[in-house]
Specification:
Layout: E1 4-7, H1 11-14, E2 19-23, E3 37-40, E4 65-68, H2 96-102, H3 117-131, H4 136-150, H5 152-167, H6 169-184, H7 188-204, H8 214-235, H9 260-276, H10 279-282, H11 288-305, H12 310-330, H13 333-338, H14 359-392, H15 409-418
Antiparallel strand pairs: 1-2, 1-4, 2-3
Helix pairs in contact: 3-4, 3-8, 4-12, 6-7, 9-11, 9-12
Length: 419
């Protein structure tokens, strides 16, 4: 018999076209029976179904295979019937609803992310959480460590400058005292001269007070970006952050009900200010007030931090702990020698020109200096106004008689005789 393997496709998708593959004639049984297939097209001749399949064109998609026999009559009607596809087994197959329920929505669908500094922070947090499969507390900690590590070169530059300023503190304080005394006495010329001497001295010793502010100025925008980014994530909220915390603060979208995180944040901030503050920068007379303000900062911010979400306090506490570790690391002598940071010289308080004052005395001195500076500025302003009026207004009479007024001849003769 001549059998044909027919490849059928959907009538709706291919407009009822059928492709047939014909098998060649059988060979003797003693020889290996091969199969010679070719595609029957509309132009094929000398085939049994030439007339029926004359418009058929070759195609490639295969749906099923069916054998036909030329001896059992015309079974071409079987080509018209396409069986139903088998049912998809349901046992063990996950439901689409279950898959979707376990997935987290992208930040872009929640209105988070973007290319702003805040959006970049949120994108990094999303990458650490989704790409590396980390919990949210781990993402915040790793992100904090990475950012603070990138700022480490600025910390080295600041520490080098602070050590030099500490070692040259006596000379700087002498010039500062002379300049302050000249300013308080109203001698602007001497004050400017001593100020110029201080500038030349600092240039000669390669000192720059602004280098001590590199780290705070660099950390401020980063802290604000993390603060705003984590606050938006907690307020949206990101559902996975409800159980992405650690220990007692499992929900990072709400504040700590035990007030432990705010207390830890304030204590670590105070320790960072005490250990990480450069003595050369804070021992100057004009920085006493700033030192006391920084010491009072942890107590001042505590009432506000108790209402912050756990995500923000987690970042703040991690940053403070990193600062403490960094300060302790840079206090090691071998580490300071490796980074070419000068050894800090300890000056005795009695040998310094500017004596260390207590909190009350420092506040009083700062207030007195502010009053003197304000009075000098007001006096200079009044002198400038008087000078302008004297140049533009009428002449002020400072003598009893006007020498330019005409005089009579009699009086002049009498006066001459009397002389």
């Amino acid at each position: 018999m001549l059998s044909r393997a027919c490849r059928l496709v959907s009538r709706n998708s291919l407009h009822g076209r059928v492709v047939c593959v014909r098998e060649g004639a059988a060979v003797p049984t003693s020889v290996h029976r091969g199969r010679d297939y070719h595609i029957a097209s509309g132009h094929a001749t000398a085939t049994l179904l030439n007339a029926r399949f004359s418009p058929v064109k070759p195609i490639t998609a295969t749906v099923l295979m069916r054998n036909l026999s030329t001896a059992d009559g015309d079974k071409s009607a079987l080509l018209e019937t396409i069986p139903e596809p088998p049912a998809i087994p349901q046992a063990g197959a996950p439901e689409i609803a279950d898959i979707v329920a376990g997935a987290e929505p992208a930040f872009s669908t929640l209105g988070l992310g973007g290319w702003t500094p805040v959006g970049i922070v949120q994108n990094c947090m999303e990458f650490l959480h989704i790409g590396l499969d980390l919990p949210w507390w781990g993402c915040i900690a790793i992100g904090t460590v990475c950012v603070r590590t990138l700022l480490f070169p600025l910390v080295i530059a600041s520490q080098r400058n602070a050590a030099k300023m500490n070692n040259y503190m006596p000379q700087l304080q002498v010039l500062q005292m002379k300049m302050t005394e000249a300013r308080q006495a109203g001698n602007a010329i001497d004050s400017a001269r001593y100020g110029q001497e201080m500038v030349l001295f600092m240039k000669e010793k390669n000192l720059n007070p602004l280098k001590n502010m590199l780290v705070p100025l660099a950390q401020a925008p980063i802290f604000i970006s993390f603060f705003m980014g984590l606050r938006e994530m907690a307020n949206t909220p990101v559902e996975s952050m409800r159980d992405g915390g650690l220990f007692w603060f499992t929900d990072l979208t709400i504040c700590d009900q035990f007030y432990a995180l705010p207390i830890i944040t304030s204590l670590t901030l105070f320790a960072t200010i005490e250990l990480g503050t450069d003595s050369a920068r804070m021992s100057a007379a004009n920085m006493q007030t700033a030192k006391y303000i920084l010491r009072a900062l942890p107590l001042f911010i505590f009432p506000f931090t108790i209402n912050f979400p756990g995500a923000i306090l987690c970042y703040w506490a991690c940053s403070n702990f990193f600062s403490l570790v960094q300060v302790g690391f840079l206090r090691i002598p071998k580490v300071r020698d490796f980074f070419k940071i000068d050894r800090i010289v300890t000056h005795k308080p009695e040998t310094l020109p500017i004596k260390k004052k207590g909190f009350t005395d420092g506040i009083k001195e700062s207030w007195t200096n502010m009053k003197i500076s304000r009075e000098l500025e007001e006096r200079a302003r009044i002198d400038e106004i008087r000078f302008q009026k004297a140049g533009k207004g009428p002449l002020v009479k400072t003598f009893k008689y006007d020498p330019t007024a005409p005089r009579t001849g009699t009086s002049s003769a009498v006066n001459a005789k009397k002389r």
